[in-house]
Design brief:
single chain, 497 residues, mainly alpha, three-stranded antiparallel beta sheet, 16 strands
């Protein structure tokens, strides 16, 4: 992983840990987004000298040695504009131009859309759902710019990180790159698939790294697990086992409550961050408390469906190229993964898909919208889809859309919250399997929740309380954010359907 010309916040040593432990900033992400005015060596040397003085102030030291993050100045307000006009205009507000500002930000060559709020950088899986709205608004130039940025990241760091920050270089996010290039190919033709072939192959190799190293006695490597029957499936992971810099003190507090080795707790927290569902009872052993987090022990059904989609797009590319050898190889990979998802994640008795605990050799019993992903990639039978649809209608559908899980755990990826990406995936999956009335009901309720909140606040939110639409969504690591890239994208896409 290249480090040339990149700044890593950990290079500030004891200053980094002292600032993040002191909680002088209400948001742990604030300091790690600051830009140092001097070299790490110079700042650290000054810190060691000055902190011994009686009048020393940590916050004043930071203010003197760092440029603090600020939101770009904008005069834009919604001013009671119709929601559609607001969203069309908001793309320009959320767009960021290429910048070599420094600090932990990894510079990108092309303009991109940020989610909004405290999220000052591009995010991986957010971007696909943002692109759905950009497609509706015919901003194909921005879609292509963003995909080119992701291809650039794959080239320079070997994968698409969580976001373009150096503190995200241990992990990725749900792999939607194949969906992005498929979306762009709808606008520009199948040559687009060939343009990004190399990038997609490299990303797929990242997720499959270590496949040939797996043995019966060494059955785990990074994002891969070899199961007893010889099948290989994927899990979420992070290459580091330390507190996340952007949530340092929070992670320390969680690890203190656990009886597990702290490095294992940190790794599992980071792996859950890679899932995008940070955080959910889905990842907790007791389904209640975060200190029981066990992410790397689980085979997530949604992750494996996303990788199956990458295999499907690669198969399409090899078909276009008449590459019989790779076509056959990926046909086999797809069939193998499809059967493995069926075997390990489908529960015929309960009529639902679940994650698989590869150490305990059994499915979890967390009902979540991850169960819609086999429908998204069209590997569920109609009968399976019917059963999933029934459970969603009976247990997940509420006044403002669908909840993420059926648990209320005080985590933001649990009830009562609903999130744009999962509303879209659930809507599209059910519609594809002919549950049109239910899909339309989800769409209607979700859009109404967006419209209700917009009428009251003039803002689009990152997440919504879909059980009580007039209540504020909450829980989890940070306050609800407004902006908001993927909510805007999904709303526009649904409105256009």
């Amino acid at each position: 992983m290249p480090s040339k010309n990149l700044f890593f916040i950990e290079s500030l040593g004891e200053l980094y840990t002292d600032v993040q432990s002191s909680e002088i900033f209400s948001d742990s992400k604030y300091f790690v987004d600051c830009i140092p005015k001097f070299s790490s060596e110079e700042i650290l040397s000054k810190y060691k000298t000055e902190k011994t003085k009686s009048a020393f102030s940590l916050i004043k030291f930071v203010e003197s040695n760092f440029i603090q993050p600020v939101e770009p100045v904008t005069e834009y307000t919604s001013d009671n504009k119709p929601i559609g006009q607001h969203l069309h205009e908001l793309w320009n507000v959320l767009e960021r131009k290429p910048s070599n500002a420094g600090g932990t930000l990894i510079p990108l060559p092309y303009p991109y859309i940020v989610p909004g709020g405290r999220f000052r950088e591009i995010y991986y899986w957010d971007s696909y759902f943002t692109m759905l709205g950009l497609q509706v608004d015919k901003r194909i130039d921005i879609i292509e710019n963003m995909i080119d940025n992701f291809a650039y990241l794959i080239e320079i760091v070997g994968f698409i990180p969580n976001g373009n920050r150096t503190y995200y270089l241990g992990r990725s996010q749900p792999p939607f790159f194949s969906f992005m290039i498929s979306l762009l190919s709808e606008e520009k033709g199948s040559d687009i698939l060939l343009k990004y072939q190399s990038a997609l192959e490299k990303e797929y190799a990242y997720w499959m790294d270590g496949e040939k190293l797996l043995t019966a006695t060494n059955n785990q490597h990074r994002r891969l697990v070899l199961l007893d029957d010889g099948n290989i499936l994927n899990r979420y992971w992070d290459d580091y086992n330390t507190p996340r810099p952007e949530a340092y003190i929070e992670d320390i507090h969680i690890a203190e409550k656990s009886t597990a080795d702290k490095s294992t707790v940190f790794r599992n927290i980071r792996a859950a961050a890679e899932s995008g569902w940070d955080f959910s009872s889905r990842w907790f052993k007791d389904e209640k408390n975060m200190h029981t987090i066990q992410t790397t022990d689980l085979i997530p059904v949604d992750l494996n469906c996303l990788l199956l989609h990458a295999e499907q797009i690669l198969l399409k590319i090899y078909s276009i190229q008449n590459n019989a050898t790779l076509f056959q190889s990926f046909e086999n990979k797809i069939e193998q993964r499809k059967k493995a998802i069926e075997k390990y994640c489908w529960n015929e008795h309960l009529g639902f898909y679940f994650d698989y605990h590869h150490k305990e050799k059994k499915q979890t019993r967390t009902y979540s919208l991850a169960a819609t992903f086999p429908l998204l990639v069209k590997i569920a039978s109609q009968l399976q889809a019917d059963k999933v649809a029934h459970i969603i209608e009976e247990n997940f559908l509420h006044i403002g859309g669908v909840i993420t899980t059926m648990k209320k755990s005080n985590q933001q990826w649990d009830a009562p919250n609903g999130w744009a990406p999962l509303q879209w995936i659930t809507y599209k999956s059910l519609k594809d399997y002919h549950h049109v009335a239910l899909a339309k009901e989800i769409k209607k309720r979700w859009m109404s929740a967006n419209e209700t909140k917009y009428a009251a606040t003039g803002k689009m939110m990152e997440k919504y309380n879909v059980m009580h639409v007039n209540a504020k969504a909450g829980d989890g690591e940070y306050p609800n954010q407004d902006g908001f890239g993927w909510t805007n994208g999904v709303y526009l896409k649904m409105k256009s359907e």
